[in-house]
Design goal:
seven-stranded mixed sheet, Helicase, Ruva Protein, domain 3, alpha/beta, 2 domains, 11 helices, Rossmann fold, two-stranded antiparallel sheet
Length: 265
């Protein structure tokens, strides 16, 4: 196993044993649970999960780490090591029950958002506990009307609940990163609040709204090239859901975006 972290893979190893335990405890996995761990690396979390959960699936992109994990755990019937990219993983095929699985990981900061949205594609897991950059955690959990609130906040919280569990100082890692981290819990909403077509329409609306976040809804709905909704139709939709056309996107709660998207459809 490589001694050195690879910057190209965004590797920072969690060396604080107390925090390792705390993350695993937050996941709350037991002997009946199937757990997917993203980027186990040197096994900081893995060693606390092996033998305590029903099935553990490890997804590791790094060649050296994947090989070492296979050597270490490959003989166990309750552990599967997948050498590959989490963004290309077909969870429906690799997990026994993808909608009941738990996900945990200390994920690379440079691809946090793609990983989160990949995990929130259907079928969605039961619960997700991730170590992310603290700034990203704050954006996911930010209240409407704040500077940190944006497309990421709405995109995640229209399909899941988000909790920022605790902050993790940069000194808990080797090499020491240039930012602080936080552990978040993302719990997909059940039953799902939208069908697949509604989610697609919502994503278009949210992306357009926050690209023009300083403009009022009237201008966004009418003039954004991804929307171009006639003003009379936009007015009818906003009135139906109790939103004013003069409102700016950051003032709308995630639930408002769902209602507005449905009304526009």
């Amino acid at each position: 196993m490589s001694r050195y972290a690879k910057r190209s893979l965004g590797q920072n190893y969690l060396v604080d044993a107390n925090l390792q335990h705390k993350i695993v405890e937050a996941l709350g996995a037991g002997p009946e649970d199937e757990v997917l761990e993203i980027g186990p690396g040197r096994g900081a979390l893995t060693r606390h999960l092996v033998g305590t959960v029903g099935r553990l699936v490890l997804v590791e992109l790094d060649d050296d780490h994947a090989s070492a994990l296979a050597d270490r755990f490959g003989a166990r019937s309750d552990v599967e090591v997948i050498h590959g990219d989490i963004l290309e993983l077909d969870r429906a095929r690799r997990l026994h029950d993808p909608e009941d699985a738990l996900v945990v990981g200390n994920i690379p900061y440079n691809i946090t958002t793609p990983i989160v949205f990949h995990l929130l594609e259907r079928p969605r897991p039961r619960d997700i506990v991730l170590m992310v950059q603290d700034e990203v955690a704050q954006r996911m959990a930010a209240p409407a009307g704040t500077k940190a609130y944006g497309a990421l906040s709405v995109g995640v919280r229209t399909v899941a609940r988000v909790q920022r569990l605790f902050k993790v100082g940069r000194g808990a890692f080797r090499p020491v990163p240039g930012v602080d981290s936080a552990v978040i819990r993302i719990t997909p909403i059940r039953p799902e609040p939208m069908d697949a077509a509604e989610e697609k329409n919502l994503r278009v609306l949210v992306r357009a709204a926050f690209q023009w976040r300083r403009k009022q809804l009237r201008r966004i709905l009418r003039d954004h090239p991804d929307l171009e909704i006639p003003e009379d139709r936009a007015e009818a939709a906003t009135e139906a859901v109790g939103v004013k056309m003069e409102t700016r996107p950051e003032r709308l709660e995630p639930e408002d975006f769902i209602a507005l998207s449905r009304a526009l459809a």
